[in-house]
Sequence to fold (159 residues):
Amino acid sequence: MIKALYPGSFDPFHNGHVEIVERAAALYDVVVVAAMRNPQKAGPLFSLEERKEMIESAISHVHNVEVVSLSTLVVDLARALGAGVIVRGLRVVSDFEAELQMAQMNRRLSGIDTVFIPTSAEFSFLASKLLREVSSFGGDVSSMVPKVVADALNAKYGR
Ligand code: ADP
Fold:
């Protein structure tokens, strides 16, 4: 049995993330999606607990998936879960440099390999940061995020 860990900030979770979860769930026996604190990203929009609840709701149609949220090192969580692999999504070439470095660091720390799943072209422009920006200025991102996230963004920005 191979358990995969899909870690990320997911602030907020969007349709590109949903697709990676669906595809990882078809490849592995169990996928654990972990909403984590990214020290390089200050001032999150949603709390870890809010993100966990939104992810649970957004991927309730995928049955071999669990969701956790915590503030720890990815490899410590992977070890604690007994994960055999870390999954990350890749959008564009510019993602690759940082992702490669992180994958190499995580493998050095834990021996656990990272598998990259390339996004479908229709989602390659989606980024949580851009969605936060567009939404904060009143743009409608409801076609790019799960309904639970669209509702939470509207509530956050008083719409
Ligand atoms: P981070 O974990 O770097 O803080 P995110 O929460 O934005 O970043 O992303 C979590 C994971 O989802 C990363 O592996 C990222 O590459 C991937 N991802 C982000 N946006 C997309 C997308 N549009 N399509 C596929 N994968 C994505």
The pocket of adenosine-5'-diphosphate is lined by residues 8-10, 16-17, 20, 38, 41, 88-91, 95, 119, 123-124, 126-128 (CB under 6 Å). The domain at 3-124 is CATH 3.40.50.620 (Rossmann fold). Strands lie at 3-8, 30-36, 65-70, 85-90, 113-118. Helices lie at 15-27, 48-58, 74-81, 93-110, 128-136, 147-156.
